[in-house]
Every structure is written in structure tokens, then in C-alpha cells.
Amino acid sequence: MKNTNPTGTVLYTLEQTIKEYRKMAQKKISSIVHDITVDQCLVLIILHKNPQYSQKEVAEMIFKDNASITRIIDLMVKKDYISRKIHETDRRKFNLEITQKGIETIALLIPTIQKNRTDALAGLSENEIVLLDQLLTKVLINCKTDHEK
Amino acid sequence: MKNTNPTGTVLYTLEQTIKEYRKMAQKKISSIVHDITVDQCLVLIILHKNPQYSQKEVAEMIFKDNASITRIIDLMVKKDYISRKIHETDRRKFNLEITQKGIETIALLIPTIQKNRTDALAGLSENEIVLLDQLLTKVLINCKTDHEK
DNA sequence: CAAATATAATTGATATATCAATTAAAAATA
DNA sequence: TATTTTTAATTGATATATCAATTATATTTG
């Protein structure tokens, strides 16, 4: 009875879980702010905490590649959440500045974002959360070392 | 020291882990068969085990929505992995048949797919895998019940 | 049976993911 | 310093995700 899912592995549950979490989180966020995605929220939060980050650094923080982050930030600039200014000392980079609208949006959404996380983890003890993180990290490292060689 | 990741939750590790797994799996699969994606492989496997499944049933099995599965199968039909025939008794549905090329591809890829999974879970005991699955399922159910209401 | 409702699949619009190629600028090195 | 190599960001191509609207067909119900 352990493996009833199609491919017989926990990796299926992993896939399904993150998908449901994303759906749930997006639904809650959309109900407060209509023109923002979960990923765009994360970019705002990262930049809020680390105003000096380049696109590349933001990308690494949320596991996106450079191409994805370019497009995500393009959209955020269009929607006036962020502005791009050329970096003073390294002209390959940008300074990314959160706009007033961006700041207001963060304030509006932070409670929701935090609630999404606690809701997702409801019923798990502190120990279980730590354990989950450890087990996931093992899998993560396996995959990383595997495809980096 | 528990949470060093940007948003301070295990959900980040979850996101990162599934992304690395997908990358690793795609890389290994691409090295054997060049014109197929991980998701397309899954469709082949599902149909192989359940030849009578409709698109909708395949979709549910791998957590895709109808729109996604329509497009995935479109591509697979174009690449001659699958053929669509109208269902005899319910003309809203299709019978999806794996082609000869599809069957050969499955045979070629199954060892790789299985190796990907065991590699990803290397170093985890049976108990740990069961535990991981249980913890993930708790999160999954939290998210589902949350956004289904 | 006819009308209303439900279901399977498709399509359009928009966002993200991935890979490869490109550009511009910075850093390293001969 | 001139040349080579790296790095940051962009762009193009293709695949997938999500939502909403639509089409065609089945099923239910009045």
C-alpha cells in the first residue's frame, strides 16, 4: 500500500504537492492584488530585503535562470512595480528599484504570503518541518551533484 | 540555523528540489532520446499501462489540466508517438494509441527513468522515503482543502 | 421528447522554463 | 596595453501552466 501513485515514487507526491501549493498561493494572492503573480511577489520581497541585488542575484535567490528573470522583471517594470537604472560602476548590471506601487503592494501582500505558508504547513510539528526540509535537501543534493557532472 | 533560505520556509526547499529533479531527469532523458520531454514520457507510460484512458484521465494522472494535456498530446501526435482516434461510444473523447515509435521509445527510456528516481532518492532509507511521502501528503492535503473551498 | 445542464476537448491570452546564441562590458592574462 | 576569457543581461525558439471562453456531444430533468 505504500506506492499507489502512477510511477510508484515519492517524486510524484513532490510534484503534486508543489503544484497544489502554487495554485493555492496564487489564488489567495490574486484575491488581494489582481495583476501580480507569486513569482513577481517573490521578486519584490527579495529586492525589498536586498536592494542592491542584480537580476542575476535575484534569479539565484528564487531558482530562476537569467532568461526567466529578465522576462519577469520586464513585466514588473511595465506594470510599474520596479524600475531599472543602469549600475554606476558595472554597466552590464542594473540597479533594480522598487516603486511606490511596489512598496504598497508588498505591504498589502505580506500577511497573505505568510498565511499561505503557515496554512500549507498546518498540522506539521516543528520537528516534522525540520525533518521534511532535511529529507528534501538530501534529494536536492542528489539531483544537483548528479546533473552537474 | 533551520531556515537559511530567502523566505524562511521548507516550501522553498520543496520548490528548489522539484526543479533540480526535473532538470536532472530531462538531461538524462535527452541524452538518450532527443525529441521528447519528461512530461511526454510520463504520458507514454500512463497510456502504456492504461490504454483506455481519455485525455482527461491522463491529465489527472500527471496533474495537468485539460489545456496542457491537449497541447502535450498535439505535439506527441505531430512527432508520431501517439495517434488519436475518435472514441466509438462517446464522441467527445479520443482513443489515444501509442505508435510503434512510441513503444520503442518507452522501452528505450524506462531504465533511465527508473535510474533517475533511484538516483534522486539515493541515501534515503525505506523509512525515510515513506516518511517524506507522508509529510508531503500532509502539505498537499492542506493546500487542496484550502483552495477548494 | 425538449430544454437545461454537465462533460471532454480545444483555443486564445498571458506567464514562466529551458536551451542556445548573442551583445556589451568587465576582468584576466599574455 | 592588446587579446582573451568571463560575466550580466537579452533574445529567439519551443514547451508547459493557468484561466476563461468556446464547441461539440452526452446526460439529466422538467
From TrEMBL, chains A, B:
One of its GO terms (molecular function) is DNA binding. The keyword Transferase does not apply. Keywords: DNA-binding, Transcription, Transcription regulation. InterPro entries: HTH_MarR-typ, Tscrpt_reg_MarR-type_CS, WH-like_DNA-bd_sf, WH_DNA-bd_sf. Residues 7-141 form the HTH marR-type domain. SUPFAM superfamilies: Winged helix' DNA-binding domain (SSF46785). The keyword Signal does not apply. Pfam families: MarR. PANTHER family: TRANSCRIPTIONAL REGULATOR, MARR, TRANSCRIPTIONAL REPRESSOR OF EMRAB OPERON. This is DNA-binding MarR family transcriptional regulator.
